[in-house]
Each structure stands twice: as structure tokens, then as C-alpha cells.
Amino acid sequence: MADATIAAPAVLALGAWLKNTACLLPLQPGAAPLWSPLHGDLGDPRACADLQASVLALQARGHRVVAVAHDLHPDFFSTRLARQLAAALGVAAVGVQHHHAHIAAVLAEAALQQPDADARPVLGLALDGFGLGPAGEAWGGELLWLHGARWQHLGGLWPLALPGGDAAAREPWRMAAAALQALGRAAEIVTRLGPLAGALKAAGVARMLQQGLHCPPTSSAGRWFDAAAAALGLHAGRQAHEAEAAMALEQAAQRALASQPADALAPPAGIVAADRQGQLDIRPLLARLFDLPAEADAAQRDAAAAGFHLGLADGLAGWAADAAAAHGTTTVALGGGCLANRVLTTRLVQQLHTRGLQVLRPRQWPAGDAGLALGQAWVAAQPLRAAPTSTPPDLETTACASPSLRG
Questions:
Q1: Which fold has domain 160-360?
Q2: According to the UniProt record, where is the region Disordered (predicted)?
Q3: Dist. CA 144–CA 56, nearest whole Å
């Protein structure tokens, strides 16, 4: 290892929970990040051991670690390891909000191609399954403003309840129940979802939603996709792997778009709109799915799946365009695992361009959690690049949440 007194300074970031990777980002402008291998999800002890080994390997790359960045979630293994490492090195442990990191990763990548790309304010649309908000909220569909290390939360998707917490992320029918409750149609939960989940389980979830028991709210884009997939009967049972229901919904949309033009499948303009609190209300898109006749055939359900994707993309684009005008920027950065959905991303980028906005999105590194560590490192590096001997500001909050809702 190089002499710590003369080695070039760098920030080490340890990622989050899912698809974990670590990243070492040198403070020298234009320097490329150094990545660990993909470790996988940190619920696996082997992945945790691999992360520890990668931390040692990255430290041996000849840089002097001057800060260690991590997710805000206090119970992630990566967070605990980051704090332990920072204490051992005598440097700051910098907590970075999950969706801030997603958008920051996009800016970091853009800055490698164009050194001043991260110097101007941008809007960020972060769309994924879960990330802890600064006050312990379950976020996942967020509109942000960023300028350097500064950021502001402008709004999120309309929140859905998570009946049963983590169980709702595994069983899409629960999210369909939450959507019915959000639409004022809770009386339909048992009749619609009983045949899929069992009448007793559906009735139990209906009671949970009515009483607000173990039903934390979430603005997660991923959970809205789950609700849509279950509403159409495309995937309602337990998911065997992450985003299985969302992938079934996307495949249905692709089938429809292969035979019909997008504009013929898109719902009416303006059906999705933001309220005065900055929440993007996409309940009308779910209502259209629940309103399909019971005898609707596969082609009609595929068309409805396409309409959900297109309506969501159009609503997101309009939401971002209004915020861009209000905040005097013309650039929107897109991040989060939902960008793996090609139907959503293609339409969203097209609609943003139509509105005269420049779009930044991940190209070289993953949009989801596998690329998150770069954003964490980038945020922690900003004040250090301005004054390399200073201590970065504490971006953590004291808010904590349970270690659940990792999906």
C-alpha cells in the first residue's frame, strides 16, 4: 500500500443492501472510480464477507481514504461496516440518502465525460423499490433538485400502504389491495383478490388497511408496478425474485406495443397530475386497470399494461417539466432500478425531450443499486474537493427505521 501521507485522497463508499458493490472515488477531478465486484444482496452472509474483502482490496489500491460513505439505513450491514471502518481510520462516516445517491451517480458519470456537467443545478427523478428517506420514510418514486452536494426533495409518488410491511413487497396482490383502498374501493378487496390469495387472507389485509395496522406508507414506484400487475392478473402470487411482477407487466406492454402505436394506447393527457403537496397522483391509472371488464381477453389486458406504462411516463415527464420551469433548469437526471424497464424509460426520455429538456441517465454503470456506491462517494467528495483537508458535512439524520422494507 502506498504511504498514507503522500497517497492521493479518495472517498470509499459501501453501497446499500441489494446488489451491493463498493466504490473508491479519487478526489482528483476526472479520475475514474474503482469498483469492487458485485457482491449480491447483503442478506447473504457470503455477500457480507465478500464486501469486507473488497473493502480491504480497495484500500490496497494506493489511495488514502479520507471519508467513508454509506446509506442512511442504520441496520444495513454496509452501513455498520462503513461506520466501523471510518472510526478505525479516523475519518468521517457520511450518510447519503438513497435516492440522492441514485441521481448523484448519474451526475458523477456525466462529469467524467464533461468536467463541468455536475456544476449546474439539475432535477432528478429516482424510481426504484425502496430507500430510506431522511425522516425514516419508505421512499421509491422521488423528484429531487440537486446542485453540487446540496439537494432538496420536491415531491414523491402518491403513497400506497404496505399491508404487512415486507410481505407486501413479496406478494403483489397486497399492493393491489392497497391501491383499491387508496381509490376508495376497499369493499372490492375480498371479491377481487380472494380468488387470488384466499378469501381469509384477503379479508385480513382489508382489515389491516381499514385499521391502518402494520401498513406503513411508501412512495415506491416498484410497488405501484406490483399493484398494476396484480390488478391485471398478470402476477399476484409470491414473487420468486425481485421485480418479477413488474417484468410480467412490462412484457405485456411490449406485446401490445408490438402491434399498436404508443399514442393509440396511451391514456388521455393530464390523467396523471401532481397535487399541491408535490405528490404525483397516479391512482387514475390503477382505476383504469380495475375498471377492465372481467371478461377482458389477453390482448385487452396487454393494452391496459401498455397504457399504464405510457400514462406513468407522461405524468412523470410533465411533473419534471413543471418543476424544471419553476427551478430554472433544463436538465433532468434519471436514476433507480425502474429504469431497467425499457417501455417506461423509452417513453419517459422521449417525453422529456419533447418538452425541451436535456436528459442524463446511466450509461456505463447500472441505474439500480449496483451503481449506487458511486453516487454515495460523489456526494461525500463534493466538499472535500473544494477543501481536501476539511471534514465533510454530516448528511445523516437521527431518524431510524426498522431493517425491513429492503425490497
A1: Nucleotidyltransferase; domain 5 (3.30.420)
A2: 386-407
A3: 34
